[in-house]
Write a structure and sequence with these properties.
DNA-binding; homodimer; 2 strands
Chain lengths: ~120, ~120
DNA sequence: CAGTTTCATAACTCAATGGTTATATAAATT
DNA sequence: AATTTATATAACCATTGAGTTATGAAACTG
């Protein structure tokens, strides 16, 4: 799979990365990784309002990262991994694509900055 | 490293994920993975204006994903992998943390990490 | 039935994004 | 010196994002 192939679902990739770009949402996802939780349970650790949490859940849902259920008057959220796969896939592919300098990154960058003023990395 | 540890640099993680949430910027990064490029070269494949590209580069620079150089009147951009590692780290840690439901994804990642039939990279 | 719990939705504010065009700056070219 | 090239910056516009408070709708409880 090529990098450009991941762009064949750009909207989903956009939505997933955008969803991950917020610390509250990442925290919610981490919480959901331990099991499904109601809106109230998800809101509890934060100081923001319940509607704000509901909005975050909508963002996560639109990205496909969670699914909502109905349990009486509760609307618990459950994690869905599939869309995360797109993000991981893109990043892993990117890393492989740029393999030459990715692994020993820090060391190489230091070398580049000091030993080689003009960035001829791996061409 | 735990998931919560990645939240110790939330701003950077925020900026990196946000930077990756735009297809133009992902495309720019893919282009830069093949080597540094000037603003004009980066703008060429797109139909948007040059200032728009400069703005995207600023976003990428703020996220630490690129560095700018000065070569006469050109300001070529060069990839910087370090912040991307933070994003990969968070996602991989998340995957590990939620390993039980990530089995299918593990398979996909193995695929990705292994065979590369065609040497062709990307746009 | 009346009240409470759980959650969603609406309406609003404020800041940030992503785009534009127009202009400025600095180096290269003629 | 004048012009062209490469890029940045400013000013503006429309849209989105993240938050708020207020209110509504179900479902549960007494």
């Amino acid at each position: 799979m090529k990098l450009s192939d991941y762009e064949s679902q750009p909207e989903n990739l956009d939505a997933v990365f955008a969803a991950l770009a917020d610390p509250t949402r990442r925290s919610i996802l981490a919480r959901l990784a331990t099991g499904e939780a109601s809106v109230g349970e998800l809101a509890e650790p934060f100081e923001i309002s319940q509607p704000a949490i509901s909005k975050h859940l909508k963002v996560l849902e639109r990205a496909g990262l969670i699914e909502r259920e109905i349990d009486r008057q509760r609307r618990p959220a459950r994690l869905n991994a599939a869309p995360m796969q797109a993000a991981i896939g893109w990043l892993e592919e990117f890393r492989r694509f740029w393999s030459s300098s990715f692994d020993e990154l820090d060391g190489l960058l230091e070398e580049l900055k000091q030993a080689e003023p003009k960035g001829a990395a791996d061409e």
